Amino acid sequence: MVPTLPAGISRRRLLAGSAALGALLGLPACGSDETSAPRPPDPSWRFIDARGVKVQLPRRPERVVAYTGVAAVLWDYGIRPVGIFGPQRREDGSPDSTVGDIDLTSVGSAGEGYDNLDFEALAALRPDLVVTGMTSRDVMWVIGADAIERVTRIAPLAALEGYGVPAEQIVAGYERFARLLGAETATPELMNARVRLNQASTAARAAVAAKPNLRVLVTYADSEGISIARPSQFPDLLSFRALGLDLVEPEGGEQYYETLSWEQAGRYPADLILHDTRAFSLQPDQLTAYPTWAALPAVQAGQVGRWSAEARLSAQGFAAVLEDLAATVTAARDDVVGSP
Question: Would you say 202 and 324 are in contact if contact means Cβ atoms under 8 Å apart?
Answer without folding.
Answer: no
